[in-house]
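ok so heres the complex, two chains, lmk if somethin looks off
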Amino acid sequence: MIGYNFAYLDEQTKRMIRRALLKAVAIPGHQVPFGSREMPLPYGWGTGGIQITAAILGQTDTLKVIDQGADDTTNAVSIRRFFAKTAGVATTTRTPEATVIQTRHRIPETKLREDQIIVYQVPQPEPLSKLEPRRAETKRMHALAEYGPMHVKLYEDITRFGQISISYDYPVMVNHRYLMAPSPIPAFDNPKMHMMPALQLFGAGREKRIYAVPPYTSVQSLDFEDHPFRAVRAPHTCALCNARDSYLDEVVVDDTGRRMFVCSDTDHCETRREAGHEGTGEPVAQAAE
Amino acid sequence: MSIDLPGFADPVADAQSAFRAVLDALARPGQIRAAGTGLTPPAPLNPAAAAMLLTLADADTTVYLGPAFADAADWVRFHCGTQVTDSPADATFILADALPNLTALPNGTDEEPQSGATILLQIPALTGGPARIIHGPGLATPTTLSPQGLPPDFAAQWATNHAQFPRGIDLILCAGDHLLALPRSLSIREP
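and the predicted structre for the whole thing:
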C-alpha cells in the first residue's frame, strides 16, 4: 500500500511498543505504560490491540480477528481489512490457520498452539479500578501485591448474592504475583489462559497500557476454598451445531421473546457443522431460569 | 570508519523479524532463535546483538557499550540514532562481552519494574558450556541450557536478580546470528 508504512504505524512507534512488549513479557501481568497513538478508529474499538498487532505483524503472518467470538462483526471485519490493506498480510477466519489472533472479548474454543500469538483488546487494564480510582494508588497496590480489597469485594458478593457475581473480566492472578484484568472475556474463558501454549498480549489504547502472559504461565481466577471458581455457560446446546461445551450467545429471534442459543465462536460452530454436527435450528421452547 | 558498514538491508521487515525472534525467545526462555542473519556490523559486534540494537534502540533510549565495543560506537550512533552513554547506571540497553555486575545496573522500582535494564551479552556460543537448569513463566517444565561465556557464579548472581522480582534485569545472550533470552522471572540453578 503506497503512502503508509508497513502495518500503518511508523517505525519509531513500533520500537516503543516493542520495547514495552518485551518488558511486559519479562514481568507477566504487570501493566507497562506506552505512548498510545491516535489510530484511524475511535478509542474503545480496539486501538490498543491494533497497535500491538501492528508492532508484531510480519509479511508472513496470517491474521484472524474476532469480536465476541465472531469473525463477521463490524469491528472484526474492519480491523481485518485494515491490516489486509496496510500490511498486505493474509487473513483467515480459521483459528488453526492463524499465526496472530486479535480478539475482542473471547478466546477461541479451538486450543491455541505454541506458534500462535493472541492479542486482546482491553478497555480497562486496571483490575482494581472499580475499587480504587486513583492510578497512583493502584500502582502502589500492585507494587506491594496488596490485593486484599479485591478478595473483600468477592467476599461481599458471596454474602449478598451467595456467589461471586462477576461474569466477565473476572480478575486473575498471573504467575502468583500480579492481579490482572483478563479483558472482558467471559469468566468461562478464564481457565483457557492458564498454561496456554500461545503467547498472550494485552493492549489498552485509551488507558495506554500493555501487558502480557507468556506461554505456560500460571493464571488463576481468584476464588475461595469454599467457593471455588466456576466457569459458567448457558445451560443449553448450540442450535446450529449442537455443541454442549462451547460458550453460547443468546439471540432473541422474534417479538414474542423466543430465544436461540448459538456458539459465540463462529469458526468453531462452522467447523463443527462442516463435520456433520447439526443442531435443532429452533429457538429454545421456554426461558431457562 | 565503522559507519561505512550497512544496517538492515530492509529496515522494516528485518526489524520486525528480529523483534519477533527476541519476543519469542523471551516468551520461551532457553529456546534459540535466529536474528540478524546477513548483517555485517563492525567487529566485535555480532549480528544478533547488532540486530537487537537496530530493532530496539532509538532516540528514546540510551545504550552503554562495554569497553570492547568502542569501535562500534559510531555505527550504533549512526544507525540507531541513539544516545551512547558512558554510564551503565543510566542505560536502557547494555552491550557487553562479559556479564556486568548486575547490582550496579538499573533494576526499576517496585512500581515501575519495566525500567530495569536489558543486557545484550555477546558470548562465544549458546551451547556447549556448563549446564544450567531454568524454570519459570514460558516453560512448561524445567529446561537445561548450556551457553558458554557466563561467569562460574552466574546462578548465584542471577538468584540475587531473580529475588527482587518484579524488579530486575533481563538478559539476552547473543552468539553469531542467534540469541536466547533470560527474563528476570526465571529461576536458574546448577544441576
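quick notes: The mean pLDDT of chain B is 96. thats all i got rn
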